[in-house]
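W.,

You were right to be curious about this one. When I first looked at the sequence I had no strong expectations either way, so I just let the prediction run and decided to look at it fresh. Below is the sequence, 392 residues in total, followed by the output.
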Amino acid sequence: MKAKLEVPKDILIIIDKLRSEHFEALLVGGCVRDFLIGRAPRDWDLATNAKTDDLLRLFPDSLSLGVAFGVIAVKSTKLGLIEIATFREDGDYLDGRRPELIRYSDAKADARRRDFTINALFYDPYATPPIIDYVNGFEDIQNKIIRCVGKARERFTEDKLRILRAARFAFTLNFAIDSEILEAGQALASEIRMVSKERITDELRKMFKAVSEENPISKAIELLQKMALVDPLFGQKTFFSNAIPPNEVLLWLHSYEQLGESIKTRFMLSHDESHTLKSTLELSTTLKSWKQLREGLLLEAVSQKETLMALDYLSWKKQISSDDIKKLQDLSLQTTQNKTFQTLLINGAELIEMGFKPGPKLGNILREIRLQQLEKKIQNKEEAKALAKKID
């Protein structure tokens, strides 16, 4: 850990502006945590006793992220959005996500409303020592443990996503999980479905983004299992009982294969992601029986952009031999590098000019022309026209 946090100039400008108006201004949350762990901070958040009206007056070009909760964001060219939140205490959480009301307070009370001790530390760049710790977060960072501020069951009851966040921080930081968190998390894990699929998916993506050779995805899944989250998240306790996918892509493929279209009710996947997963699974089914395919169909299959992903999935599931995987990978490389496979000899408009009528039959003719082109049975436009007339 460095002796002093290198605070960006844009942050110091905000702090100085607030203090020139006689307000407190402290760094808080992830940037302080990451500094103490020895990582470069990515998100810079500030906390202050200035209320929303004061913040909007001092920073007129800011964005109102949650005025009711005293949160604004100041735009920075270098850092993006810098969040500034007013010190507060939270009232009761009736929806398992947000407090029904808030009360403006001081730094100490603000620290006590936060989720984990490691996220409740403040940093004053002009003080010595600069760390302000009301919840023993510094000690927990030194001991590499995830512990809730106050009672874990209360924190999780307030916001169910915190159960998943505990697993995520344990994985990404390589910290242990406090026994009280484990007990409360396991007891309340089923209530994670109260949380929106957008927030759940965002947490999982952050978790999987930290996957590396030293920190494999199997460890992330084991943490989810330990927190009893696999069943409520994926729909069954035995979801990963046979084997754990080795990477995030295969995990989503496995999930789509097991859950089908219902995956969209559990996780927030974009249209392109859903399409790619579905296409890859369909392609893996085709390639599984590649030896029975017509040559043109095989060449067409291995030229798809999802081919290597589909082969990885088949290899992980042991549904095809390693020798066959290598042959198909080589064939895929050959087809994608061969311009013959990328250029159509003739298109639908040209066939219509020859007198063919638009419709399913025209599509079938184009399809056969394409397959015979891939099989090198025809090699130019004239041969394609002749084949079209013969088929017709």
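Here's what jumped out at me. The longest helix spans residues 271-288. And, maybe more interesting for your project: The chain is about 50% helix and 10% strand.

Coffee later to discuss?

I.
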